[in-house]
Write a structure and sequence with these properties.
This protein is of the alpha/beta class. The chain has helices at about 5-10, 25-30, 35-45, 60-65, 175-180, 190-195, 210-225, 245-250, 290-300, 315-320, 325-330, 345-350, 380-385, 390-400, 410-430, 460-465, 470-485, 520-535; strands spanning about 65, 70-75, 75, 80-85, 110, 135-140, 150-155, 185, 230-240, 265, 360-365, 435-440, 505-510, 515.
């Protein structure tokens, strides 16, 4: 180990010692260090420490990590050491569009991880975009001793309807986790038609969900490299909200992700929502064709929608079309595809069948999930068509009168069907494999007059990354910290959160206070669950 490295490691053990401002005042340093540290320092001096010029950069030793790709250097911010924009895969550009991600190339010289990489192509114009976007970010406590410690890791998967978002964090986004000795990781994955696509004439031997392939590649990279940052590769928890919550549910059933994480938290995932299917998946007549939907997107991107143009090789032209055209070809949210490979079946169906990975699991949703309905791209008539023979009963339960995306009853139906139902089904299905399952219902609002319809979609996600000192929110965060550290959310000074294996019902309600409710929207979710099972029973397996 270099002399500079030894000094940096020695000083870092003293949390109140500002290693960035000490210079080389050896006399002052000797007064601060213990006798043991003095002996270490004396050895350093003999080895030639006094010839080393740190020039105010004595913390640099903690900012550099050696990876299989080469050397990477991060930045010190507040109480965290941050590494931004590290490539975890080769750029999926040119002929490598719509291909599985390849391992990243080695660095040429030292890689500077001081800036976020470009975000994946999307409609937002606020950030630099590029198809060369497969990068990740690591946020660790600056007090960590990477050779003596091995901290738990939270991998946060961003939301955004699979059409926008990134792994970029606000200046304070990592603070809660690092202050609680948790390493936070975020990353980008391909979005829109670049991330989920199955045109009828495109050969896709590995599947159609390239975004999921990216997620698996990021997790494999972390498994191999996170120990260099002081993280424990055997204590990785994946979590996300909305599309990120759906991503967690997909990774729970993705064959390639087996063993890459030890816990999972799905916030407002929609694994019970009807998904498009390719010809490689088992037939389900009520589900749309992924090929047909993808062909529609392709024709819009090529500006030939509605035109009498026939081509047998439509996908050949798609490799030449701009990313911006592909982005513009999708209105509303984009949804994953059951392709028989990256997603063998809809996540909730696989959970019910007991085909999910055997790791502890949290899932939940909010009381006003439907706040996001106007942006979904799902028309009320299309939503109502999913109700099957229960249309009249559901119309009564939800008081469906005005047919509009802005009508609150339709919003509540959308929110319950898309998010709460998936939380209910997936969490209670953990009992099928004898693994711990926990379920929550977030109903906290700071101003009941302003938020009379309940807690909006993703509102609990924002609170996890904020610093407000509200007792019930502090308790909620503590459940998450505990789960990431020990795969169990329970701990001292917290109301007990029941494991659904102990009693296969119940929701932890997070409202003005925390309590356990035996049921949430019992009549509504019961009938929606019956719809789910009816649809599931229509799957043709070919037997």
């Amino acid at each position: 180990m270099s002399t500079g490295r030894i000094l940096s490691r020695t000083l870092l053990r003293y949390k109140n010692f500002n290693a960035l401002n000490i210079g080389l005042d050896v006399g002052v340093t000797l007064k601060i260090l213990s006798k043991t540290s003095m002996r270490v320092l004396n050895s350093i001096v003999v080895l030639g420490l006094l010839a080393v010029s740190f020039q105010g950069q004595s913390f640099d030793g903690q900012l550099v990590r050696q990876l299989s790709q080469g050397t990477v250097k991060g930045v010190h911010q507040g109480n965290s050491i941050i590494f931004k924009g590290i490539p975890y895969a080769e750029p999926p550009i040119a002929d490598h569009r719509w291909q599985p991600p390849l391992p990243p190339a080695k660095f040429v010289g030292e890689f500077s991880a001081e800036q976020y990489g470009p975000v994946c192509p999307q409609k937002s114009q606020k950030l630099t975009q590029s198809e060369n976007c497969l990068t990740l970010n690591i946020f660790s406590p600056d007090s960590i001793d990477i050779e003596a410690q091995s901290l738990p890791v939270l991998v946060w998967i961003h939301g955004g309807g699979f059409v926008f978002g990134s792994g970029n964090m606000t200046a304070q986004g990592h603070k809660n986790w690092n202050d609680n000795e948790i390493i936070l990781v975020s990353f980008n994955y391909r979005l829109g038609a670049l991330g989920i696509f199955a045109p009828s004439d495109m050969t896709l031997p590995k599947g159609a969900n390239f975004s999921v392939m990216d997620m698996v590649a990021a997790l494999k990279w972390l498994k191999a490299n996170i120990s260099a940052f002081g993280g424990d590769p055997n204590r990785i928890t994946i979590a996300g909200g909305s599309a990120g919550g759906m991503a967690v549910q997909m990774l729970m059933v993705n064959p390639q992700s087996q063993g890459l994480f030890q816990g999972a938290i799905s916030q407002s995932g929609y694994g019970a929502w009807p998904l498009p299917r390719t010809k490689d998946a088992a037939e389900l007549k009520s589900s749309p064709s992924a090929e047909e939907l993808s062909d529609q997107i392709a024709r819009r991107a090529l500006n030939i929608e509605g035109k009498e143009i026939v081509t047998e090789n439509l996908s050949e032209f798609l490799f030449e079309v701009s990313a911006a055209s592909l982005v513009a070809a999708i209105d509303g949210f984009h949804i994953p595809i059951v392709d028989g490979k990256t997603l063998p079946e809809e996540p909730a169906i696989m959970f019910v069948q007991g085909r999910q990975h055997s790791v502890p699991y949290i899932s939940g949703g909010n009381s006003y999930e439907g706040s996001v309905y106007p942006y979904s791209g799902v028309e009320p008539t299309a939503l109502f068509s999913l109700m099957g023979k229960h249309k009249e009963r559901i119309k009564q339960l939800y008081k469906l009168d005005e047919v509009s995306t802005s009508a609150v009853p339709y919003q509540h139906l959308f929110g319950d069907l898309r998010y709460l139902l998936a939380a209910k089904l997936t969490s209670q299905s953990m009992d099928n494999i004898g693994q711990a399952g926990y379920r929550y219902f977030y109903n906290y609002v700071s101003d009941k007059r302003a938020f009379s319809n309940g807690a909006k979609h993703a509102s609990e996600t924002y609170k996890l990354f904020q610093a407000d000192n509200v007792p019930v929110l502090n308790q909620m965060r503590q459940y998450w910290y505990n789960f990431i550290k020990q795969q169990n959310p329970n701990g001292p000074n917290l109301p007990k959160w029941p494991n659904l294996n102990e009693n296969n019902q119940g929701w932890l309600e997070i409202a003005d206070k925390i309590n356990v409710r035996p049921e949430v929207r019992a009549d509504k979710l019961a009938i929606l669950e019956s719809l789910f099972h009816q649809r599931r029973d229509e799957i043709k397996t070919g037997n």
